Amino acid sequence: MSDRANAPETTPLQERLIALIKLKGPITVADYMADALGHPHDGYYMSQEVIGADGDFTTAPEISQVFGELLGLWLIETWRNMGSPKVFNLIELGPGRGVLMSDMLRAARLRPEFTRSVQVWLLEISGRLRHEQQKRLRSSEVKPLWADEFDDIPAAPSLIIANEFFDCLPVRQFQNVSNSWRERLVGLSSDGKTLEFVLGKTPPPSDFCLPDPDECDEGEIFEISFAAQEFLTDIHSLLNEQGGAALIIDYGHLQSGFGDTLQAVRNHKYWPPLASPGRADLTVHVDFEAIARGAIDSGAKVHGPATQGQFLDRLGLALRIEMLCKGKTADEVAKIQAGASRIAASNQGGNF
Ligand SMILES: C[S@@+](CC[C@H](N)C(=O)[O-])C[C@H]1O[C@@H](n2cnc3c(N)ncnc32)[C@H](O)[C@@H]1O
Description:
Elements: H1 12-24, E1 27-28, H2 29-38, H3 44-47, H4 60-63, H5 65-81, E2 88-93, H6 99-108, H7 112-117, E3 118-123, H8 127-137, E4 145-147, E5 158-163, E6 172-176, E7 181-188, E8 195-199, E9 221-224, H9 226-242, E10 244-249, E11 252-253, E12 263-266, E13 269-271, E14 281-283, E15 286-287, H10 288-297, E16 306-307, H11 308-314, H12 317-325, H13 330-345, E17 348-351
Parallel strand pairs: 2-3, 2-5, 3-4, 5-10, 11-15
Antiparallel strand pairs: 1-7, 6-7, 6-9, 7-8, 10-17, 12-13, 12-14, 16-17
Helix pairs in contact: 5-6, 12-13
The chain binds S-adenosylmethionine.
S-adenosylmethionine binds near residues 95, 125 and 165.
């Protein structure tokens, strides 16, 4: 079990943010998220064990190998539909501990030509997680390469996988105050010792294209992720030029709407989002309607969104579980089935 603190402590990043806000004024929620998760020294993903029983949260590939195996079958099928290109990229955004890639590549061995043709690219912000990915994929016959930026990946037909990646990209938040938007910012408490939400004094620029505040209640929040939009623009232009597909799986809503979805998790429990920055995971809900709209506008064909359970069912979850359970003890069967139920029910996913 994890020995993480259960009460907020002052972190080095918090001290740095407090000093910055004293000097320059409140920062956007997006800047706060970017630092709390990705600061090169003190960001959450840089400095500690984050995923798994000893970390703060668990993801679907960490719960059951079947998740990655079924995605491996989806990859083979999609690659065949692309005309089985002899050279292509398999790009994973935010590969965590490398478990998903390892399970997908094992399943893809069913088609040796897929394995011979693929160049795996891992886009990862954390040096610590890159090291884990290297260790896990060391024995794979496919040799992965790592990219710092999406643009560093050479142009080629591409299959792109993002599982629980878009939910950690920074969002800006806007609050309806007397039928006018004000940006929700991170500022300081009156004693200057802790971080607190405050409101910006001027309305946001009109090119942010926020919805009409009349459409929602007083105090309601609207979120925009410019970081997600940038990734999606890069994905659209690569797929438009070279062909391919992207599968995006995440917690999120199927229709755009209002609401504050910023949440923190520490030691597998909810945590106040502004407490102990750098020591808790921060996520937001992904707006699948906005993703689908952007993809359609770029000329892409959109399938879904569907819930993760529906998607895995269509890929043959029940059959794969039946095969895995053959010849196993009652205890092992119970574990396999419990894992399958969790990945079928755990979140909502979309794909296009
Ligand atoms: C919630 S984890 C998901 C891990 C993995 N996909 C899984 O399903 O187990 C988020 C991953 O995205 C990475 N990440 C977060 N922000 C990133 C960014 N801006 N660029 C590249 N990687 C990022 C994290 O370091 C981590 O590997």
